[in-house]
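Example 3.2
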Amino acid sequence: MTKKAFASQGDLEEKTITFTQLGEGLYAFTTEGDPNTGIIIGDDEVMVIDTQATPVMAKKVLSHIREVTDKPVKYVVLSHYHAVRVLGAVAYQPEQIIASAKTHALIHERGQEDWDSEYGRFPRLFQSADSIPGLTWPSLTFTDKMTVYLGKRRVEIMHLGRAHTAGDTVVWVPDSGIMFSGDTVEYRSACYCGDAHFNDWPETIGLLKSFNPQALVPGRGDALTTPDMVSEAIHLTQSFLTDTYTPVAAAAAKGWSLKDAFSACRDVCDPKYSTMRFMNIVCRSMWLGPTMSQTELTIRVSGLLSVTRICGRHCSSNTQLSSAYSLKERKADVAGEDRRKVD
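Structure, written as tokens:
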């Protein structure tokens, strides 16, 4: 059987860059739902949160930074390990690259595999891929929390819990009440759930919410410049997770096929989320064609990833859909690896 191309491979249209100031020395580099980058400017140095996928793409961020400061980038923070977020780090020439210990472990476990996979699925996000020197390795790691001072400005770097991945990091700037969430929070963008911990993720968002951020830079989507926008993003992210997880978990408990579980997920999600502006999200299933609309793509992929993550071991067989759940991942689930737990 001929495999269809990933729908995201056909998405080659350049996105509009927006560079938004959220507070004194605090900026968001956003591109219409592509991965965001955060910038914190201190007394003498700069911190960058997430780097873009290649050094050449990172230079677009640097050009905007240089419009507002000539201070060197001393720190790069990795919100998690996914290749589209981290492989541009070398362009900033940082003194330190910071990540959670769990993110460091995930780079060891599957960093190269993720790079290979995302490069194949998102060609537009890997402009000048030959400029990537190799995997990005953190030089500083932490377990739960670390504090960095950019001169007088205190920055809290925290792993609040499992969410989008097992090692998600958020960055909090208390002097301004501004949070950089990585993919723990999205704004009007479906959540990629391929590494997700569904039951933990809403609780982790709840911990983030307890900081009462006045503005927030999400992993994808527009910069959130008001408390009302922050509340909306948190609500939408939590709702999307619940609405994808609940029907699929119920289907798994009943022993439904993957196809039927997927349909149950669509029945819940389509009415609520079909009008959102969606990102170009990961597409594992060869079932999705290159001509599918953006909204259809995102709903299907997010639902399918939920189906395959929750039902991969429990639902009755459906060859076409279960092909999205790789043999390696099934073996990992059977082995009980912590990264693949959904509870």
